[in-house]
Model the fold of this input.
Amino acid sequence: GQQLNQSPQSMFIQEGEDVSMNCTSSSIFNTWLWYKQDPGEGPVLLIALYKAGELTSNGRLTAQFGTTRKDSFLNISASIPSDVGIYFCAGPSGTYKYIFGTGTRLKVLA
Amino acid sequence: NAGVTQTPKFQVLKTGQSMTLQCAQDMNHNSMYWYRQDPGMGLRLIYYSASEGTTDKGEVPNGYNVSRLNKREFSLRLESAAPSQTSVYFCASRFNTGPSGNTIYFGEGSWLTVV
Done:
């Protein structure tokens, strides 16, 4: 079945630094979603992407739909302590089924 | 602002015991999901229900059963718990169509330990 692999698996960064992470799929996706999970809570949608090459921002977050349709990227600019958490990519596998990636755990050092 | 509500939040089971995780959403969503989260493995889909009266297997259905009791409720049952089912379980829901159809809303999670 389809798999979503994220890298890096985890990262420590200094406050104020920019962060980049990516997600790759074994097959083509027509929608890419990025979620964030705060400690002790369920994931929350950050950004949705619908076509190849699309670049979408949400505040300090920018996500891109890869041109091959098998990857997507998330960048966070000028990180702050509340950016800590796990970031997941996700996408539809069929009409109703949604699969999630392995996650990137972000830790911000003040 | 209830959204997706899961119970219980924490549970410890002995190997072989059974239990049911309850989930309810008040957003009139069509689809409901059960995921499990394990370190380094992300969120893996156990079962989903695209509408009332239908259920389908996800990536890791073995050892679980589900019931879509009505449009609001979707329960997950462990018939004979095993230590490998120690995990955090998330219920989720979404609309099937429309501009918000890709927004999946999650509950706060249920921490299950099987000893």
